Each structure stands twice: as structure tokens, then as C-alpha cells.
Fold this protein.
Amino acid sequence: MQRDRSVRALILGLGLLFAGTAWAENVTGEVIDLSCYLHHPATSRGATHRKCAETCAKKGLPMGLLTDDGSVVLLLEDHGNPKAYTDAIGKAADTITVDGDKVTQGGMTGIVVEAVK
């Protein structure tokens, strides 16, 4: 019984240790506006949706990357380098690679945009 508690405490401690983690990475995907993508994913991608996505980006709505495996990563501004984020969201409907710290919090994944390729 004591051993079970110790194992549970270890697992809980490891979970807390890795909650809210960040690691340097690059992510490649199509720049999408999350407002449209979450509401109607089938029609909110590609060149036909570019103008709408650009409008959403200008309004300050959240933007993300849709990766080849279907996951979505939220684009986050690096306050020390806002130009990289601006460059990323300016490429709505294009496929880009973003370098930066990938972060996870509460089940959501984002990347702090440090460079765009």
C-alpha cells in the first residue's frame, strides 16, 4: 500500500514537472485562421480562403499552423521579436516552417515564432 502511494506520488510529480513545458523546435504547416478553421474546417484552407484568412489576421484573430498530420499549433508572438510573428501571419494559406519554442499548456500547443522559413 505504501509502495502504491509512492508510485502515484512519483507519477503525479512527473506530470507536474512536464506540465507547461517548452522546447525549441520547428513546425511546418499551412497558416490558417483558427476562427474559420474551427467553425468550418473543410472550406477554410488553401488559396480559396486566403483573402478571408488575411482579413481575420488583420483583425487580430488567432492564427495557427495546420500540419500534415492534421494537428494545429497556435502561433504566438515573441515579444522580443514581433516581426517574425507578423511575417508568419502575413502568409495566410501558405505552407511555412516556424522556428521557436513549442509550448503546451492545458492541452493546447503553440509555438513562439522566432523565425519563419
